[in-house]
Design goal:
This protein has a single domain (4-74), classed as UreE, C-terminal domain (Alpha-Beta Plaits), CATH 3.30.70.790. The protein contains two helices and three strands, in the order βαββα. The chain has helices spanning 16-28, 61-74; strands at 7-13, 33-35, 52-57. The longest helix has 14 residues, at 61-74. The radius of gyration is 13 Å and the shape is globular.
Length: 77
């Protein structure tokens, strides 16, 4: 995968698990993506609310946003 300068954030997940679910969905649609692992090395210990960015290559952003919208609708509370 190319470096993250060529990538844009298409979603800010509330947890690493949520980001990984979306990452799997994007990958199944042949969209390369990157999830930044920002979880604390100490489970449950964070300095405040943190989001986990999900990035895709800029040329895949439009398709990725459609998948993000579907994902969000399926996982709405």
């Amino acid at each position: 995968m190319s470096n993250t300068d060529d990538m844009i954030v298409v979603y800010e997940a509330g947890s690493l698990a949520e980001a990984q679910l979306l990452s799997d969905r994007l990958a199944s649609a042949d969209i390369s993506n990157h999830v930044a692992n920002v979880d604390s090395p100490f489970d449950g210990l964070v300095a405040g609310h943190q989001t986990v960015p999900v990035r895709v290559l800029s040329h895949d952003a439009e398709r990725a946003r459609q998948i993000v919208d579907e994902f969000m609708n399926e996982h709405a509370d």
